From TrEMBL:
Keyword DNA-binding recorded: yes
A single BP term in Gene Ontology: regulation of DNA-templated transcription
Domain HTH luxR-type: 188-253
Any one GO molecular-function label of the UniProt entry: DNA binding
InterPro entries cross-referenced by the UniProt entry: Sig_transdc_resp-reg_C-effctor (IPR016032), Tscrpt_reg_LuxR_C (IPR000792), WH-like_DNA-bd_sf (IPR036388)
Phylogenetic placement of the source organism: Bacteria, Pseudomonadati, Bacteroidota, Sphingobacteriia, Sphingobacteriales
Name this protein carries in UniProt: LuxR family transcriptional regulator
SMART domains: HTH_LUXR
Keyword Transport part of the UniProt annotation: no
Key words of the record: DNA-binding, Transcription, Transcription regulation
Length: 255
């Protein structure tokens, strides 16, 4: 699992009460008919993921043409790892935004809405291109937790290369509901509970200009331990490098 991919798993882990606690049967549906209600103006693939264990249970063969991945062996993380690292904070924030709004609207309506937003993915030709993501909850367990979801990724590079950084919730069936949200681009570091005491010490020393060797000497740690801490810190913050980490922490008032 890539460090940036951890951001999405952390969003789902933090909202674990909203996900299925038991495996739920996939309802009898005609996916091809269901796809007719989705906006797919370009090459696309679709898959069904079970959020009980985050396992793909149905994969469209078209993923081979669109992403160059083998449909028989591809995993959920294989797909997530194709998202451009610089877009991962935005994707995690989009998921959080949709979860928060749906809870306020009424979680019992979670199957009534289709989620949509864009991000860049590495396509079959090796280039990062703009994709439109759409998701629909197909089943919930007895607690209302999200079970199986249908996800569709459409290559829209021929339509736009600019991301509006918005997320949408669209009512399905007879619903005319349509909601648009502005999604923050960067990691939302709101409090120090994200980091351990040792990690906060290392962040402060990094901000003061200490390199890994100096930090190890200062805290009486091995160089390997400090490097592992720094890797974990970057992953938690969703930062690509130390400069981005310090900027995020300063903005959030953590240092």
């Amino acid at each position: 699992m890539q460090p940036k991919t951890n951001l999405l798993h952390e969003v789902w882990d933090k909202n674990i009460d909203l996900l299925a606690r038991t495996e739920v049967e996939l309802p009898t549906i005609n996916i091809e008919e269901l796809l007719a209600s989705f906006f797919c103006p370009g090459p696309f693939y679709y898959y069904v993921v079970d959020f009980y264990d985050r396992r793909i249970i149905h994969m469209s063969p078209k993923i081979k043409d669109v992403l160059g991945l083998e449909p028989q062996t591809v995993t959920f993380d294989d797909i997530l790892n194709r998202i451009m690292p610089e877009d991962m904070n935005y994707v995690a924030n989009a998921e959080t935004t949709v979860y928060d709004f749906t809870q306020k609207k009424g979680w019992d309506k979670v199957t009534n809405y289709k989620t949509g937003y864009c991000f860049r993915m590495k396509s079959a030709n090796g280039n990062f291109q703009m994709f439109h993501h759409q998701a629909l909850v197909l089943s919930t367990d007895t607690t209302g937790g999200i079970g199986k979801t249908l996800n569709i990724h459409t290559n829209v590079e021929h339509l736009t290369t600019v991301n509006s950084h918005k997320a949408t919730l669209t009512g399905i069936g007879n619903s005319t509901d349509f909601f648009v949200f502005d999604v923050p681009l960067h990691s939302q570091l709101s409090n120090t509970s994200l980091f351990t005491k040792r990690e906060r010490e290392i962040i402060c020393l990094m901000a003061a200009g200490f390199n890994s060797t100096a930090i190890a000497e200062r805290l009486f740690l091995s160089l390997h331990t400090v490097k592992q801490h720094r890797k974990n810190i970057l992953g938690k913050a969703g930062a690509s490098n130390s400069s981005e980490l310090i900027a995020l922490c300063l903005k959030a008032g953590l240092i």
